Amino acid sequence: MKIGVLALQGDFEEHISVLTKLGADASDVRLPEQLDDLDGLIIPGGESTTIARLLARWQLLSPIRRRALEGMAVWGTCAGAILLAERATGLDREGLRLMDIAVERNAYGRQVDSFEAELSVPAFGSRPFHAVFIRAPRISEVGAKAMPLACLADGTVVAAQQDKLLATAFHPELTDDARFHQHFLALAAASPPATIRETESQAATGVRRPA
């Protein structure tokens, strides 16, 4: 299992540390050619506008989109979730726009408004997940292609999944609980969903399946 962590800006080293402890072959990613043999890619927390600018500067936007359509798993944490979203408010340039969610940037305020919460994650069983929110975004809408994985007590969605795409508004890499990283490794190991396989086949042959 080979997992890359985008290392343009943000807390990529923490993700690499967790993945290594779980036995994954984890490495930092800064160039398009480093995406070619990955099973999964993590886009870490950091400054979303800075990461968006660097994605464009290093010509990574199209290669990441292409690899995601080919079946590479992609997980965005905090700023990474903003970049994954099809609809993102407060982002001054194009993100990846891969995932059918809407995300509001800096929805909870400044650094001093950061907080922690115990989350119920039904997919992980009854034990709550301790989540760390730092200048966190809000997942304001989950479209038909995606599904919520965890919510705050007021019902606000803070984690969502779409096929092999994962978005979390918090920082699992800053805790001792590796269940989200384990979940992502399982996504990366899974076969691409039928919709992804069909899209890849259509792109290669030019033939579209009848509606």
The overall pLDDT, averaged over residues, is 89
**Run of helices and strands:** EHEEHHEHEEEEEEEEHH
Global Rg: 16 Å
CATH topology: Rossmann fold
CATH class: Alpha Beta
Bulk shape? globular
Strand content: 25-35%
Largest sheet: 7 strands, mixed
Overall tally of structural domains:
1
User: Stretches where pLDDT falls below 50 for ≥5 residues?
Assistant: 195-211
Q: Taking strands numbered 1, 2, ... along the chain, how are they ordered across the largest sheet?
A: 2-1-3-4-12-11-10
| The CATH fourth-level homologous superfamily | Class I glutamine amidotransferase (GATase) domain
Give the topology, please:
Elements: E1 2-6, H1 12-21, E2 25-29, E3 40-43, H2 48-57, H3 61-69, E4 73-77, H4 79-84, E5 85-89, E6 99-104, E7 115-119, E8 129-133, E9 138-142, E10 147-151, E11 157-162, E12 165-168, H5 179-189, H6 194-205
Parallel strand pairs: 1-2, 1-3, 3-4, 4-12, 5-6
Antiparallel strand pairs: 6-9, 7-8, 10-11, 11-12
Task: Report what the structure shows.
With 211 residues, the protein is an alpha/beta fold. The protein has one domain (2-205): Class I glutamine amidotransferase (GATase) domain (Rossmann fold). 27% of the residues lie in helices and 28% in strands. It is built from six helices and twelve strands. It has helices at residues 12-21, 48-57, 61-69, 79-84, 179-189, 194-205, and strands at residues 2-6, 25-29, 40-43, 73-77, 85-89, 99-104, 115-119, 129-133, 138-142, 147-151, 157-162, 165-168. The strands form three sheets. It has a seven-stranded mixed β-sheet. Strands 5-6-9 form a three-stranded mixed β-sheet. Strands 7-8 form a two-stranded antiparallel sheet. A hairpin with a 5-residue loop joins β10 and β11. The N and C termini lie far apart (35 Å). 39% of the residues are buried.
